[in-house]
Amino acid sequence: MNFEKPPEGFLASRIQKGRYVFPPRKSRSPEVTLIGAGWEECLPDFRIDRTSFRYWALEMIDSGEWLVRTQTGISHRLKSGGVFLYGPESQCAVQAVGNGPHRKYFLDIHGKGCADLLRDAGLNEGMVFSMAGQVSISALFEQLIACSNLTGCCTEPLMVLLARCIYLRVGAERMAPARSVSPSSSAFERCRSYLETHYTTLDGIAEAARACHVSPEHFSRLFSKFAGTSAERFLKKLRLNQASRLLQQSSSSIKEIALQTGFKDPYHFSKAFKAAHGVSPLRFRVQSV
After folding, report:
1. Domain of residue 282, residue span
2. Which of 56, 87, 226, 259 is in Cβ range 3.0-4.6 Å of 125 for a Cys bridge?
3. Is 2 among the domain residues?
4. For residues 98-110, average pLDDT
5. H/E element, 1
6. Do residues 39 and 162 share a domain?
7. Are 145 and 38 within 8 A, CB to CB?
8. How far apart are CA 133 and CA 121, in angstroms?
9. Are residues 69 and 99 located together in one domain of the fold?
10. What is the pTM of this model?
């Protein structure tokens, strides 16, 4: 599947970095269609005012403090785990405030089946709420974003299924009894955030563990428990996902992309990339054109 860039004006300008998936518009179905999804780290002065929007949108705060105002005129201050929804033609203002880094996930869908999906999830346009289940939902978002590296006829149905799962899981978490966040969950969020911020410059997991004030063994256990994978694989996935985007969107050489994404050896980068994607970086770039 050849993924497209977002429509002009779709993404806000005050974004420091992001990871996205935008399926081809020509393949969209009339039921529930994925328009786009992603993770963004925004600048401290980020602000966007949606006076109208064509799609159903779900956004979840990953980190930082945010101010969200819906069409009711009420402002809500959200932190990690905060969720807000808006729909076609509705109004919504989002602003980064207070402490950062300011990061969030988003998911936009379209089609006549969207209203039924929201009803099944117990969600409504204009909802703003907080929940404690963001770790599991973040994992679903990451699976969806990683689909940008897949090919084949099953990719689009998989992405739509993951989008549905995110809406349903958010609805289920909203209805779940309030629960406190465990110290280990907080530690994992801190470690995950550090990897996502510094993955291009890290020498390895031991360096990240020291920066997060935990032992390398505990660092690895946290990822096995909360991410369902090893810290080393999580780090490599971050690097390879960024590499695939650079191969599609930049004219940098393979060696330059290897260095930009934290691989010191271009040969090791090419070997790891082929193991993950089934093709060499050069072949991937040719197929993406």
Report:
1. 183-288
2. 87
3. no
4. 90
5. none
6. yes
7. yes
8. 15
9. yes
10. 0.68
